[in-house]
Amino acid sequence: MPSLNHVFLMGNLTRDPEVRYAPSGDAVADMHLAVSRKYKTRDGQDHEETCFIGVAAWGRTAENCGKYLHKGSPVFVEGRLKYDQWEKDGKKNSRITVTAQRVQFLGGRSEEGGSQPAAARGGQQQSEERFGTAPVAGPQDEQGGDDDNLPF
Questions:
Q1: Which stretch of 31-35, 65-69, 86-90, 140-144 has the lowest confidence by average pLDDT?
Q2: How far apart are CA 30 and CA 28, in angstroms?
């Protein structure tokens, strides 16, 4: 029987990413994401529900998340669901988290006034190329063309 485990989430971090290193030496960033949904009830009242989701990123992605993201940062996460179970003090616990396969930084300029981090721009460029939305350079762009000759 075929199965599929793939999620797309867009939201804001509820706290700074926590980066740690596994015994293998791989970086792991634990993040907490808030994803909101706004809707109207049958009687016309506006409502908003928020889902809080744990996200784990690994390797270079984890290091970049720890370096460039902070509480409130908007992100797009692509990944898979993971079900964890453990027992503590005789009580069984469980939770579902997301293991990130890709994290795209969505913010524009940083609060310090600098430009968006290079890692974020690279992720966006990769996404644009993947989905066919990357800007295409025209002949003027490649040769350092003159903006004064634009027809608009």
A1: 140-144
A2: 6
Question: pLDDT grade, residue 132 (50/70/90)?
Answer: very low
Architecture of domain 7-132: Beta Barrel (2.40)
One-letter amino acid of 58:
W
**For residues 82 and 75, what is the distance between their CA atoms, to the nearest angstrom?**
19
Domain ranges of the chain: 7-132
For residues 106 and 11, give the distance between their C-alpha atoms in angstroms, rounded to a whole number: 9
- Indicate the SS3 state at residue 85: strand
**Cα within 13 Å of Cα(14), Cβ side:** 13
Instruction: Select from 33, 36, 48 the least CA-distant residue to 97.
Output: 33
Average pLDDT over residues 28-33: 97
